[in-house]
Structure formats: structure tokens, C-alpha cells
Design a protein that fits this description.
alpha+beta; single chain; Trub2; 37% helix; RNA binding; Pseudouridine synthase; 12 helices; 8-stranded mixed sheet; two-stranded antiparallel ribbon
């Protein structure tokens, strides 16, 4: 951890952060890039700096200036004050899988360096995402959020938790009827039975409509309430609209006050780094922590295994070397 190029080579993999509310995902990426460039530039990055560190290992003692440094160690053309910082934010290629909008918070799976090759496998797996969505009865706005323009006000004292539970069960049942259609199989076929027996019936493509696999009440204190929603292919805008539609179903109105993603597949809040931990050393540790979440048995679902095997067979037929990292099959 005392040589910049070594740290730079270690920044390759998938890590997980917690995106705060009110911040765009692109701003999160820029923040991480600036922090990585700052942390690596603090360490010795040029050969002469390493030699000077060996001569003066105590960082509390001021290093010699350019004029007093031994000429055998460096020349002016090799000095950091001439060359400038070795790393800039754009040197770090940071990407994320599924973004969260500005008003949402929660788990955000990111990659740095060559870790981007795993993002396609994560996206192809179509992981189940879990949200805690909070709402408030009695209001209706043009964008389903508290900051929108108020369109309507209504009463809500007639709403009971038992009634809300029934509406949530109806929403869940309504979506489950279309799971096999989105998976591309007939509902009364043998393939549908095998998919249902294997686990979650995932959509065949990522561009299918959102599918809600679970919706239940976790908090109820009029006019406020909270739902835990398990879904695939959803957007935060869709979840906010769902709160609005639930309010209408209960003969009232509702706005969405919070959308918080607590799980993205195998990535949970326990793996997510807070903003104060977005440093080079913490990200390197998080990459090592998340490495066991990228094994083939966790990356490949039933649908993605079929697609991956088909692509590999096609590559072998064409005489090409199959890309294992692309499908998450590379155990290294």
C-alpha cells in the first residue's frame, strides 16, 4: 500500500457503494474517481520517490527539495513537480449496472478497471431487486413525489392496514400472472413447470415490463406507510407511480416519499460502502469482499445459463475462443 502503481493494478473488480439521496449516479462516479486519484497520488508514484522513501522512511520528516536531492537519484525532468500528478480522475474507469435516480438511495453495484466485464454477466442474470418504498396518503402531485405540484387532496382515515394488505396481494398476484409470458414460455407447458420448480421465473429480456414478485406492508402509521417490494426490470419512476395507483385503489391519493434499494441480487447493505469510505483502500477491500459474489453458481441463473451455453457453443462452432469472463464462467 506504499506504491501507487501497485494500488492502481489492484483496482480491478466489482464493488458496492451506498448512493445517498439527492445525488445523481454520475456524481457518485465522479466522486469516486476524484478520491481514487487523490489517494494514489499521495503514495510514491515515480521511481525517484521510492528511492527517497527508502532514504527517508519517516513521512513526518520533510523530504529534501529539488535543489538538495542527490543528483544520482533524480534529474529535474524526472521530478514530480515537473511531471505533475501521475493519476487523474479519468484514469479510473468506474461504471454501474442499474442506476438509481436522484431522489432514490441504496445499493449501487459498480465496477472499476477490468471489472466492467462482469457487469454484462450481472445484468444478464436479471437479479431480483428489493426496495423499501415509503408513501403518504392524502396527497397527489404531478410527479408522484412531495416536491411536485399538488393536483389533489383527499381523506385517508378510512384506510386500514388489512385493506392495504389486500391491495398489495392483488398487485403481486396481477404481476405473477404474466411471469411466464415475459419468460417466453407457455403457462401450461413442461418448460414452465421446470422454470417454476427451479426458482424465480425471470423475464427473458431486460426490456420487458416490470415484474413484481413480492409486495407487502412493513410499516403502517397513517398517513404514512411503507412497502417492501421485490421486482425485476423496474424503475424508480414506476415504483413511485405504483404508490399513486395504490392510493387510488384505496379511494384516496398517495405520494411516494422515499425509494430505498436494500438489495441487488446477492449484494446487500452489508456490502455497500458509505460515502466516507469511498477511498482507494476501502474499495480494494470491498473488491475482495465481493469477489465471492461473482462465482458462476451465483452469477448464472437458469435463463442466463441457457443463453451463455448457447453463445459459447456458437463461438466454438465459428472457431473462436469462447469468452468466459463475459458470461461469468471464469472462476479466477
Amino acid at each position: 500500500m506504499t506504491w501507487g502503481p501497485t494500488l492502481y493494478r489492484m483496482l480491478n473488480g466489482v464493488f458496492c457503494v451506498y448512493k445517498p439521496k439527492g445525488v445523481h449516479c454520475n456524481s457518485v462516479v465522479e466522486h469516486i474517481q476524484r478520491n481514487l486519484a487523490r489517494d494514489l497520488n499521495v503514495q510514491p508514484c515515480y521511481p525517484y520517490e521510492r528511492k527517497m522513501r527508502e532514504i527517508n522512511p519517516n513521512p513526518n520528516i520533510k523530504m529534501p527539495s529539488v535543489a538538495t536531492e542527490p543528483k544520482s537519484l533524480t534529474t529535474l525532468s524526472d521530478h514530480k513537480l515537473v511531471l505533475g500528478e501521475r493519476y487523474i480522475p479519468s484514469d479510473f474507469r468506474v461504471h454501474f449496472v442499474t442506476k438509481l435516480n436522484k431522489h432514490s438511495s441504496g445499493v449501487l453495484v459498480c465496477s472499476v478497471g477490468s471489472g466492467r466485464e462482469y457487469l454484462s454477466a450481472i445484468k444478464m442474470a436479471r437479479y431480483l431487486r428489493v426496495y423499501h418504498v415509503r408513501g403518504k396518503f392524502g396527497w397527489a402531485t404531478d410527479n408522484f413525489s412531495p416536491k411536485g405540484k399538488i393536483r389533489n387532496r383527499s381523506t385517508y382515515h378510512h384506510i386500514k392496514k388489512s385493506i392495504l394488505d389486500k391491495v398489495c396481494a392483488t398487485v403481486q398476484a396481477g404481476h405473477q400472472r404474466f411471469m411466464f409470458d415475459y419468460a417466453g414460455v407457455a403457462q401450461d407447458s413442461q418448460e414452465a413447470y421446470e422454470l417454476a420448480a427451479a426458482g424465480i421465473v425471470r423475464p427473458e429480456h431486460s426490456d420487458t415490463p416490470p415484474v413484481i414478485y413480492g409486495c407487502h406492508v412493513i410499516d403502517f402509521n397513517l398517513p404514512d406507510f411503507a412497502l417492501e417490494i421485490h421486482s425485476i426490470n423496474e424503475t424508480q419512476k414506476y415504483l413511485m407511480k405504483l404508490i399513486h395507483e395504490i392510493g387510488l385503489e384505496l379511494r384516496s391519493t398517495a405520494i411516494c416519499t422515499q425509494v430505498r434499494r436494500i438489495r441487488y441480487g446477492h449484494f446487500t447493505l452489508e456490502h455497500a460502502l458509505l460515502c466516507k469510505h469511498w477511498t482507494a483502500q476501502e474499495i480494494i477491500r470491498n473488491i475482495a469482499t465481493c469477489r465471492h459474489l461473482l462465482t458462476p453458481n451465483k452469477l448464472l441463473t437458469d435463463m442466463s445459463i441457457t443463453k451463455a451455453e448457447g453463445d459459447i457453443v456458437q463461438q466454438l462452432t465459428d472457431g473462436q475462443k469462447p469468452s468466459l469472463i463475459k458470461h461469468g464462467l471464469d472462476k479466477s
